[in-house]
Write a structure and sequence with these properties.
The protein is mainly beta and 113 residues long. It is 0% helix and 49% strand. The strands form two sheets. It has a six-stranded mixed sheet, with no helix packed on it. A hairpin with a 6-residue loop joins strand 4 (34-39) and strand 5.
Length: 113
């Protein structure tokens, strides 16, 4: 059974940083691209970033230059380093395998003074 468990969210001031983690189980993790999405209150879920195995990364324009997606295949974990956070980044963040439609419960990030 595929499981994804996100962690690392919290309350942070504008301009601050957080690193999210997502542990994946039930699949051959290294064989899959990984993605992060987010959903702000009252909004649809939106794509944030993708890392295709050990190769290409891509980012939504709204986070480019501030967020970095990374992975540790030995730990079946995908990370999202978020810097220079803004109030508009407030959302529940979810990780996902690029080619499989399984979702974790997400982790809440709140950016506020």
């Amino acid at each position: 059974q595929v499981q994804l468990v996100e962690s690392g969210g919290g309350l942070v001031y504008p301009g601050g940083s957080l690193r999210l983690s997502c542990v994946v189980s039930g699949v051959e993790f290294s064989m899959h691209g990984v993605e992060w999405y987010r959903q702000a209150p009252g909004n649809e879920r939106q794509w944030v970033a993708t890392k295709i195995r050990e190769g290409t990364t891509s980012y939504a324009d709204s986070v480019k230059g501030r967020f970095t997606i990374a992975r540790d295949n030995a730990k079946n974990t995908v990370f999202l380093q978020m810097n220079a956070l803004k109030p508009v980044d407030t959302a529940v963040y979810y990780c996902k395998l690029r080619d499989m439609n399984f979702w974790g419960r997400g982790t809440l990030v709140t950016v506020s003074s």
